[in-house]
Design goal:
Strand content: under 5%
Helix content: 55-70%
Strand order of the largest sheet: 1-2
Largest sheet: 2 strands, antiparallel
Number of strands: 2
Shape: elongated
Number of helices: 9
Radius of gyration: 27 Å
Structural class: mainly alpha
Length: 290
Amino acid sequence: MDSDLFSRRRAARFAQLLDEANGARRHHVRSRADDQLTALVAVGQRLVAERPAVEVDAKFRTGLRAMLVATAERQGMDAAAGTTPAGGTEAAARGSLLGAVTARQVRARGAILVGIAAGAVAVSGISAASEDAVPGDALYGMKRSTERAQLALASSDLSRGQLFLDFARTRLNEAGALRGDLAGFGAVMDDMDADTRQGVRLLTTTAAQRSDPAGLDAVNTFVTGQRKAVGGLLDGATRAERDRTRRSLALLDAIHTRSEALRDAIACGLPAPVGSDALGPAPTACPSDR
């Protein structure tokens, strides 16, 4: 597929072929790119006809719609099409021609966006199928790509922080499936701790900046449930697996200590801490009453 496949002229022809495939009036023209475009039209029809029976997550649907609307606005798809300027016959003819060209461009761009949307729906089916994948499985890359897409669509640091903690829970489930494979187990536990730090840092930073402990509540809820689940990995584990698991437990203990220190700092009205580390702001102790 050459690099100018979606030039304006070919995009307009692609829109025509899509129309014809859906029963519209045939255009008695032929382009040198028709063979390539016809193949893409066939793919589009298959995506519509064979869409997976998967319920698309509401957040994903909302994020995708926002992305498509933003793209449409950038491309000028909301410009009025077919407007004929007032004036003489020659000016009206030029306006009519310009309107026709604009309409074709709008439909061509719309065809491309419809293709993107159809592809996203198809990918969502693969994403759902990859939920139980673990490192080494064919669909594991799709699973991680879906997580990155969720982060990209998150609307705030608070939402991103909570997503990272959700991913840490997911990594824990993967670690349970990889017991007996020390290399795989250790790698997933490393990823789990990295996701934990990322999420905690975002949530504690938000709490300190807003002087609002809501983010700390999410951290504490996570630590309580995650510590119990991580501790469950110690049962029947090898010595190496126990050592690695205890490192994750120590991280959770450090997070709980930091969260409580920040909560105390907010309660006694201290300003947002200047210092920061992997777990976010590092508060000073509240002044003692004398």
